[in-house]
Specification:
Largest sheet: 4 strands, antiparallel
Mean pLDDT: 84
Strand order of the largest sheet: 1-2-4-3
Number of strands: 4
Structural class: alpha+beta
Order of helices and strands: HHHHEEHEEH
Helix content: 40-55%
Shape: rod-shaped
Radius of gyration: 52 Å
Amino acid sequence: MSRKDKTAPTKRTMNLYFRTDRTTKPATITLYVLFVLVVLLGLAKILVYDLWVKVDSARTALSLAEARRDVVVAELSDYDEVREQYQRYSATDEERELIDRMTVLALLDDAIGATARLESVSVTGKTVQVQFQEVTLAQTADIVRRLEASPIVERITVNTAATTDEDTDLVSASILIQLQKKEAEDK
């Protein structure tokens, strides 16, 4: 190879193709405007429409809640009258602490029964005053023992035991019974 054939390469053709700038044409401007409108519509949906739907559903829920409230208020319009009737017929705290009178009378009937002639029974709070007659002192002691065996009886005091009329064996007795609620509930 000769030295003459080793020449540097040269460019022998020229590329004359060039692109024209279309950014100023109305079609390109229209595309940009459409792009901005689509972005604005997307933001409007998120920032306006979705919030408007939430507010509308909240208002609907509020109107339903107000309607329910109005119904309840209408039902409670006679609350004072119902409350007064309830307080009239329900037991007070003091009455709840008392022992059922039927339980006390059943206890006295079991203890005294046909043994004595019952004169009077007075129940006040947790205290029962009983007067009976035509029993002996031994029968009176037996009645007291039967009463003390009951879980609702706290203590018994025999106030008087005196003879009636001319029979020296028969007496008239007066007994004071203290009741207790705590033991009665355990029964």
